[in-house]
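Quick one, tokens below:
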């Protein structure tokens, strides 16, 4: 009580010492005065708490920082729950998180709202702590040159935007979240991620979320990794070939369950966003689960399985494939099936096995897809497998996300913007793809060496040297062929 009496005396003295304020205080003057007094009261309260704790050690309990102290010392505020670059990955609040939110809400209320800087862009918090909002962005620019092919039409140099996205994400309360992004990389507007969701905790260590909207696949390790987070310039052939006909996105619903060592998801979608409401959508059911039987600060073992089944309607049943094998920005360099129509559905499945120890990671993937054809024709079968690995020579840990079982943005220990070298990674990959049981089969493989330089946690340079080998029986470039592709990328993700 002595401390509070002193605080009251100090308040009166402050008013008396500033007659202008006492006579006609403005709203800003009163706000400043309240903040100063709140800080003084908080300081006195902490001192009283410490004295009481020393006198009654047996009954002592850990003291939470007073909310008004958090307002007085914003530099020491705990990190907010909303720090992930993707709203869909946010954890539902447990007891500790709710304490943090209460402290933050008091601090934000005292300041009338807050803004902080996360991955290069601001995160806005409302004064009552109920709302958060964050703009999103992704700029990825590539250049590619191919040489050594027997066909001059494949020996070309091109440039392109792998991604040019703008979007937003936010939360309402602790459970509701949303995200929206559009891509302009092909010089036209393409809606990619667009969903709303609800998340909650079932019990300690077990929580869930449900997302509804235009959803990115949860399928295979690299197929579930965003284009801004892949360790190579292009995903593996497992991710690009063992895939529903509607590709990486579909409009529907995806519930997900998370536990301490893994997650599982189930997705039900129709087609991608389009303007066609004159016929039924194709239907796709997709499931994936991953498990980390070993999980520590510096070691992880990853095991994953996934599968999908897709029903194709007449008029939406073309199965023609032209799959990347030596880089996205050489349209002449593909494995091709030729024109293939009359599909009734597809079924695919795959496995994942890998992990990391310290700065070294390895990941193997394999999958198979059966595309069903009408008129009694045999299934069109696609088989793919890959083995990838990397080593961070700067000692940084691989950017593995144990919550989703995929790669995310790295946590660079020594950013170049703070005088460090950034993070430097050496990568290697072998991948193999085959189209079988059709009139015009094809097969090929590619071996890649790469170097990634992460300037900080959201800016990177990448270089890939690829030796590729193709054998097409359809398309412009048929027969066996091989050559090299050298590609480079600069990317930033906000």
């Amino acid at each position: 009580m002595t401390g509070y009496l002193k605080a009251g005396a100090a308040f009166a003295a402050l008013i008396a010492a500033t007659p202008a304020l006492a006579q006609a205080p403005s709203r800003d003057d009163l706000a400043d005065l309240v903040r100063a007094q709140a800080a003084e009261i908080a300081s006195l309260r902490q001192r009283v708490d410490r004295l009481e704790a020393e006198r009654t050690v047996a009954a002592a309990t850990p003291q939470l920082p007073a909310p008004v102290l958090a307002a007085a010392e914003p530099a020491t505020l705990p990190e907010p729950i909303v720090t992930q670059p993707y709203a869909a990955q946010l954890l539902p609040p447990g007891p500790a998180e709710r304490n943090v939110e209460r402290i933050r809400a008091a601090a934000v209320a005292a300041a009338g709202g807050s803004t902080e800087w996360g991955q290069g862009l601001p995160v806005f918090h409302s004064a009552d702590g109920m709302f958060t909002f964050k703009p999103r962005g992704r700029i990825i620019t590539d250049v590619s040159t191919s040489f050594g092919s027997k066909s001059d039409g494949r020996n070309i140099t091109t440039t392109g935007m792998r991604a040019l996205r703008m979007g937003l994400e936010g939360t309402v309360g602790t459970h509701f979240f949303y995200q929206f992004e559009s891509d302009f990389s092909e010089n036209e507007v393409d809606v990619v991620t667009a969903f709303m969701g609800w998340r909650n905790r079932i019990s300690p260590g077990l929580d869930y979320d449900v997302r509804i909207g235009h959803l990115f696949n949860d399928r295979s390790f690299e197929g579930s990794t965003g284009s801004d987070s892949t360790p190579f310039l292009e995903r593996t052939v497992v991710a690009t070939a063992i895939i529903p006909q509607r590709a990486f996105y579909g409009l529907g619903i995806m519930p997900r369950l998370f536990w301490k060592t893994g997650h599982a998801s189930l997705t039900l979608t129709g087609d991608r966003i389009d303007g066609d409401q004159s016929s039924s959508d194709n239907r796709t059911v997709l499931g994936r689960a991953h498990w980390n039987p070993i999980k520590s600060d510096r070691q992880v073992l990853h095991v994953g399985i996934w599968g999908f089944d897709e029903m194709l309607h007449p008029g939406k049943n073309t199965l023609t494939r032209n799959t990347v094998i030596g880089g996205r920005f050489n349209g002449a360099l593909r494995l091709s099936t030729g024109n293939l129509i009359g599909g009734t559905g597809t079924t695919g499945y795959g496995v994942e096995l890998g992990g990391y120890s310290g700065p070294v990671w390895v990941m193997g993937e394999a999958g198979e897809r059966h595309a069903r054809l009408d008129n009694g024709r045999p299934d069109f079968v696609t088989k793919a497998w890959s083995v990838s690995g990397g080593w961070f020579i700067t000692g940084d840990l691989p950017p593995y996300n144990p919550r989703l079982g995929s790669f995310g943005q790295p946590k660079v220990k020594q950013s170049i913007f703070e005088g460090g070298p950034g993070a430097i990674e050496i990568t290697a990959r072998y991948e193999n793809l085959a189209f079988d049981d059709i009139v015009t089969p094809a097969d090929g493989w590619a071996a890649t060496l790469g170097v990634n330089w992460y300037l900080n946690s959201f800016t990177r340079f990448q270089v890939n040297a690829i030796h590729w080998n193709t054998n097409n029986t359809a398309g412009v470039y048929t027969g066996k062929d091989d050559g090299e592709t050298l590609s480079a990328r600069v990317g930033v993700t906000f």
